[in-house]
Design a protein that fits this description.
alpha/beta; TIM Barrel; Immunoglobulin-like; 2 domains; binds calcium ion
Length: 523
C-alpha cells in the first residue's frame, strides 16, 4: 500500500514448510529391554562427557563417538558405570550442542547414527549405561520448526511463544527475554538463537515424548534434562519454577517408564531439591552441595552446612558433583583447590562416599586444568589430556584442534598418571572400584557420627543387610575418631588411605592427617 501514512505491516508472504524435512512421526516404545543390571544408575558412578572434547578418532581435530568407543575400556577400568553425553544431536552452535536443529539426528561432527548405536552397544557390553542430554526448553532458531513458526499462520506458530507486541520480561541479569522475529516477537530465555518452546502446547510435549522414545528404542538408557526450571512461563515475573514444570516432568517419568531400567536426571540450579523429588523429576543435580564438598576439602573440616545439606536431600537418588561444564558451577577442581592434590583427594572422597549418585566431569579424574588461552565455559571444555604431547595432549592426530589443550597437560595426563600409584587418577580408580564393591556406599542411608575433633567427618551408610563406616580426617593434624563398635575384628577394612586399619580397636582409631578409612560389616 504505497503512500499509506499509517504504520507499515510486513506481509507475511507464503507459508514455509521447512519442517517437512524433519521426522515428526509418532514413536511407540518397541525396544523396551535393558541388558544393564536392575537399578544400575543408583549404583553407578557417572562420567559427564563433552563429546567434542573427549577423543578424536579420525584426525579432524574434533572429538567423536568412535573416540569414546576407543576409551570405553579406560572408563571401565576407572569403574565408571554410567556416561552422560552432553548434547549429541544436530545443533546450530557447532560447539556445546544446546541449540538443537534436529532432535532425531546426530551432530555431524560426532558421527553417524550407526556410530552412535555402536557406542551404545559397546558401552552396554561393558555394563555401562548411556544417558544423553535432552534440551527440552528451547530449540535452535535454525530448527526448521522455528523457521516455520515465523509465519503467523503456520501450524507451528503455537509451538513457540509469540507476541504481536514487544514485551519486556527481564530475566536474572535484567536482559530482556523477548526478541524480534520476522513477524512479531518471540520468547527465548537464554539467547535469541534459542527460542523457547511453548510447553503449554500438548503437541509440543508429544513431540518431545516421541523423540525420547526414538532414542530409547535405539538403546539410550535415559536422559539429562536441561534447564527444567524454565519450561513453562506464566507471564512477566513468573518465568521460572512454575508448578506446571513438575507436571511435565512427571509425564516424562511416565514416558521413560514405558521402557525398563531408564534414568532421568534434571538440571535446575535454583530448584534442585524440589525438582529432585519423586513428584517432579525424581532425580536432580544437587547444586549447592558441590560448594559444601569443595569447601570442606579446602578448609580441612566439614563445612558448617555439609551435614545439613546431606540431610535436606529428598533421597539418595540426587546427583552430586564437584564441578561440571558450566562456569557458574565453578572452575575446574584443580583450580578450586589451588593445585593442592591432597585437598583434591579429600573432595573426591566426599563425592564418592556421601549419599547421591556421583558425576565425575571428564578430566576431573586426572586433575585436568583449564584450556590454554580459553575463557569462561570454553576453559572448562578443553580437549582431554591423554598424554603429555605439547601440541595435542594425545587427543588427536590432527595439527589443528577445535580448541587448545589444557594448560597443565605436561603434568596432569592419563598416560603418566596411570604409571604413578600416588596420582589423582590412581586415587579415583581405587576409590571408585572400592565403592563399586560396597553396596551400602551406593544406596545406604546416611547417619552422621559426631566427633570431638573438628577435622573429622565420620558417618555410616546403612543398607538392608550391610553397612559401611566412613572415617575421614580432612585436616592437617592427627585426630582420634571414636565409635562404640569400632574394632577391626567387627568391621572389615574395605579402603584406606594414609592410615593402617589395624589402628582401629576398642572403639577408637587414630587418624593421621588427610587419612581415609572405610569399613564394612554384614548385619
Ligand atoms: Ca573427529
Ligand atoms: Ca520455557
Amino acid at each position: 500500500m504505497a503512500g499509506c501514512a499509517s504504520k507499515q505491516v510486513a506481509e507475511p508472504g507464503p507459508l514455509t514448510h521447512f519442517s517437512d524435512s524433519l521426522d515428526l512421526s509418532p514413536v511407540m516404545a518397541e525396544n523396551r529391554q535393558s541388558t544393564l543390571p536392575e537399578d544400575w544408575y543408583r549404583k553407578a558412578v557417572f562420567m559427564e562427557i563433552y563429546v567434542r572434547g573427549f577423543k578424536d578418532s579420525d584426525g579432524n581435530g574434533v572429538g567423536d563417538f568412535n573416540g569414546i568407543i576407543e576409551k570405553l575400556d579406560y572408563l571401565k577400568e576407572l569403574g565408571i558405570g554410567g556416561i552422560w553425553l552432553m548434547p549429541m544431536m544436530k545443533s546450530q552452535d557447532n560447539d556445546h550442542g544446546y541449540a538443537v536443529v534436529d532432535y532425531r539426528a546426530t551432530e555431524k561432527d560426532y558421527g553417524t547414527l550407526e556410530d552412535f548405536k555402536r557406542l551404545l552397544d559397546e558401552a552396554h557390553k561393558r555394563g555401562i549405561g548411556v544417558i544423553v542430554d535432552y534440551v527440552i526448553n528451547h530449540s535452535a532458531a535454525l530448527n526448521p520448526l522455528f523457521k516455520d513458526s515465523q509465519h503467523p499462520l503456520s501450524d507451528k506458530r503455537d509451538w513457540y511463544i509469540w507476541s504481536e507486541d514487544k514485551q519486556f520480561w527481564p530475566r536474572w541479569d535484567y536482559e530482556n527475554t523477548w526478541h524480534e522475529g520476522k513477524h512479531g516477537y518471540y520468547y527465548g530465555v537464554f539467547w535469541s538463537q534459542m527460542p523457547d518452546f511453548n510447553m503449554k502446547n500438548p503437541e509440543v510435549l508429544e513431540f518431545h515424548k516421541n523423540n525420547l522414545r526414538f532414542w530409547m528404542n535405539l538403546g539410550v538408557d535415559g536422559f539429562r534434562f536441561d534447564a527444567v526450571g524454565s519450561l513453562v512461563e506464566n507471564g512477566n515475573g513468573a518465568m521460572f519454577s512454575q508448578p506446571e514444570n513438575d507436571q511435565i516432568l512427571q509425564e516424562l517419568q511416565q514416558t521413560l517408564g514405558e521402557f525398563d531400567n531408564r534414568y532421568m536426571v534434571c538440571e535446575d540450579p535454583t530448584g534442585s531439591l524440589r525438582v529432585g523429588k519423586k513428584e517432579s523429576c525424581g532425580s536432580a543435580f544437587y547444586f549447592g552441595m558441590h560448594k559444601e564438598l569443595i569447601a570442606s576439602a579446602t578448609y580441612g573440616w566439614p563445612s558448617r552446612d555439609l551435614i545439613g545439606a546431606v540431610k535436606r536431600a529428598p533421597h539418595n537418588d540426587m546427583a552430586i558433583m564437584l564441578a561440571n561444564h558450566d562456569s557458574f558451577a565453578g572452575n575446574r577442581v584443580i583450580k578450586q583447590v589451588g593445585g593442592d592434590e591432597t585437598s583434591y583427594k579429600m573432595a573426591a572422597t566426599l563425592l564418592l562416599t556421601l549419599p547421591g549418585i556421583p558425576f565425575v566431569y571428564y578430566g576431573e579424574e586426572i586433575g585436568m586444568g583449564h584450556g590454554e588461552k580459553a575463557f569462561g565455559d570454553h576453559a572448562l571444555r578443553a580437549p582431554m589430556s591423554w598424554n603429555s604431547d605439547p601440541d595435542t595432549a594425545g587427543f588427536t592426530t590432527a595439527k589443528r584442534m577445535f580448541r587448545l589443550p589444557a594448560e597443565n597437560r605436561a603434568t596432569y595426563n592419563v598416560e603418566d598418571e596411570l604409571k604413578d600409584p600416588e596420582s589423582l587418577l590412581s586415587f579415583y580408580r581405587s576409590l571408585i572400584n572400592a565403592r563399586n564393591n560396597i553396596p551400602a556406599l551406593q544406596t545406604g542411608d546416611f547417619e552422621n557420627i559426631k566427633q570431638d575433633a573438628a577435622s573429622l567427618l565420620t558417618f555410616l551408610r546403612k543398607a538392608e543387610d550391610a553397612e559401611a563406616l566412613i572415617m575421614v580426617n580432612l585436616g592437617r593434624k592427627e585426630a582420634t575418631a571414636r565409635y562404640q563398635s569400632l574394632d577391626n575384628k567387627i568391621w572389615t577394612p574395605a579402603f584406606t588411605h594414609n592410615v593402617d586399619a589395624v589402628n582401629a580397636s576398642n572403639g577408637e582409631m587414630v587418624m593421621p592427617p588427610y587419612s581415609i578409612a572405610i569399613f564394612t560389616r554384614h548385619l
